[in-house]
Amino acid sequence: MSTTPVNSKITVYVVSCWIFAAFGGLMFGYDIGISGGVSGMDDFLIKFFPNVYDRKLHAKENNYCKYDDQLLQLFTSSLYLSALVSSFFASKACSALGRRPTIFIASLFFIGGAVLSAASEYRWMLIVGRILFGVGVGFGNETVPLFLTEVAPIQLRGAVNIMFQLFVTIGIFIANLVNYGTSTMHPNGWRVSLGLAAVPAFLLLVGCFVITDTPASLIERGKDDQGKAALKKIRGVDDVEVEYKEIVAACEQAKAVQHPFRNLMSAASIPPLVIAILLQVFQQSTGINAIMFYAPVLFQTMGFKSDGALLSAVITGLVNVGSTFVSIYAVDKVGRRKLLLQACCQMLISQMAIGIILSTNLKETGSLDKTLAAVVVVLVCTYVMSFAWSWGPLGWLIPSETFPMETRTAGFAFAVSTNMLFTSLIAQAFLTMLCKMQAYIFFFFSGWIVTMGLFVIFLLPETKGVPIDSMVETVWKQHPVWKKLFKNE
């Protein structure tokens, strides 16, 4: 990719491409936020999970265990298992059909999931709806970050890619607002919450008729003239020859690879593959989705009433959105590593403090003192804040920019599928872990945060300002650990 900033202009068209594609993040974020709120609605529990509702009514029920139900957790986690499998099909579609058609497919599946979920009368309909949502998420999360990285000029690549995560956080925030509004719409508020998931998917569908496919995708599929025209369109200038030749060269090298998944074992692909997988494992091991999925449930566990719990979730959602703007501003200035390491320190302090407060003050019955409950909300906000400008957006950005062209879609499919696997494991296990480990679950996540910091220090290179097709020479062959893979070349 060209390193010359003057060879691109920010036009209305290219900004509209970024925004429309980023609606894929809104789609994903809305689902993350909506599922936890719906799981706490009495009408929803009465219809699909009456056993959980009965336990919830028991005044002396264990604070930490009243939502512990494997089928209720399956309602959330089934989407991510579906997304895990579909991300590999999305990788094939991304290469064979292009980025834009794959985004189109994602929106159709997600709309189907919203319609079926809102119309559900039986538990199986609910789960099938979640699976359709999952296919939409798998296709969208595979394609949208790649699309944003490939259409962004080098000097704005980090900020443009983080628009995906920004829209994820906006989706979570909107979902929390929707849940707050529909919680009093008896008996079908949950239907409205789930059905409104069709709105961001429809916006993404409309966007597919506006955006262009990426130049790299077009050239990779032999459409050189269309690729060059698309490059001129997204750069806003006619002088794109240098960047065009670099893309053509990368695509010709990629065409020589017959089996991109097998080629992930090559020296050039092993470092980004290991880092992509570990980033996803660590991103989920911070406990962020446990908090985002089940924020209303978590705050109810801490003694907030239902409305207060939903309102607290709205507050954390707003913090999440605002803090992502920090990342957009800082990522191409201070770099990836500094953001990740700073966040590890802030998240560790927040999680440890929450664990100490709950372990010493929240027993199996009763509730927290109001002052302490407010402190916990503040600590959750400081935790969410640091995640939102670091591990959240960079977990998608770094894998999308570090793979060579020949293994980019295959490698990113591993990143997406790993993310979905660990998201589903956390979603399926969190309420049971909360029941068994109680407040000590926050110490469990704290241990992971320490490990993440060591990973950044020793294995993660800085990729700020490096052309995505120059990563091997500029980054991997210069890194004290990863350069050992290239010693025979």
UniProtKB/TrEMBL annotation:
UniProt keywords (A-Z) are:
Membrane, Sugar transport, Symport, Transmembrane, Transmembrane helix, Transport
Q: Where are the transmembrane segments?
A: 12-30, 71-90, 102-119, 125-148, 160-178, 190-211, 273-297, 309-332, 372-398, 410-431, 437-460
Q: Where is the signal peptide?
A: none
What residues does the Major facilitator superfamily (MFS) profile domain cover?
17-464
Q: Does the keyword Lipid metabolism apply?
A: no
The question of whether Membrane is a record keyword is answered with yes
Where's it found, cell-wise? Answer: Membrane
Principal place of residence: membrane
**Gene3D superfamilies the UniProt entry points to:** MFS general substrate transporter like domains (1.20.1250.20)
Family membership: Belongs to the major facilitator superfamily. Sugar transporter (TC 2.A.1.1) family. Belongs to the major facilitator superfamily. Phosphate:H(+) symporter (TC 2.A.1.9) family.
Record's protein name: Sugar transport protein 8
Species of the source: Datura stramonium (Jimsonweed)
Q: In the UniProt record, what gene is named as encoding this protein?
A: STP8_1
